[in-house]
Design goal:
Blueprint lengths: L1 H13 L4 E2 L18 E4 L6 H21 L5 E9 L5 E4 L9 E8 L12 E5 L2 E5 L6 E5 L4 E4 L6 E9 L7
Antiparallel strand pairs: 1-2, 2-3, 3-10, 4-9, 5-8, 5-10, 6-7, 6-9
Length: 174
């Protein structure tokens, strides 16, 4: 599956579908290359067979997470993320301060020929110390969106991933 997802990401890149990622949401989204340097394109059902296959697989994972942990996850959103050479993402959480609907983060790496000198690891800032995760093709990293501070270290080659979030309905204030 990862090989076909790489081809789909590269097709989108050739067609100009990947755009600079921003921080924030809605009208408050801002591109800030000093914080984040990747290019993204969101997956929607029906765009490509391989994307649909991936989304179906992630829906199976959503159901398994709900069954095992009673998380109330209702949907999954994700995008391709291409980090060109020199790109990084400073430490952050994957949940907005005023919206707790992003519950679980899932990152699937697509880098078949990754070598340690390429960089681009995800550094997770855990209580027991930092943990660097190599972006090896086929590796799926799953963690609680609002609890794990993490970053993407600078890469020296293109770094490809599918980054997504399992969401539950946001709690509405009274």
């Amino acid at each position: 599956m990862t090989h076909d997802l790489v081809l789909e990401c590269r097709r989108r890149e050739r067609e100009g579908s990947l755009t600079p990622a921003g921080i924030g949401r809605g009208e408050g989204v801002a591109v800030m290359e000093g914080i984040r340097g990747d290019q993204i394109d969101w997956l929607d059902p029906g765009q490509a067979a391989i994307s649909d296959r991936y989304l179906a697989t992630m829906d199976e994972l959503r159901q398994a997470l709900n069954q095992a942990f009673f998380l109330g996850l209702e949907e999954f959103e994700c995008h391709f993320a291409l980090y060109p050479p020199g790109a990084f993402y400073k430490p952050h959480l994957d949940r907005f301060r005023d919206d707790d609907s992003r519950t679980v983060t899932a990152v699937l790496y697509l880098n078949h020929d990754w070598q340690p000198e390429h960089g681009g690891e995800m550094r997770m800032h855990l209580a027991q110390g930092p943990l660097d995760v190599a972006p090896l093709a086929g590796s799926l990293v799953v963690f609680m969106s609002g609890e794990v501070l993490h970053e993407v270290l600078p890469t020296s080659v293109d770094r490809l991933a599918l980054t997504g979030w399992f969401r539950r309905r946001a709690i509405q204030p009274f």
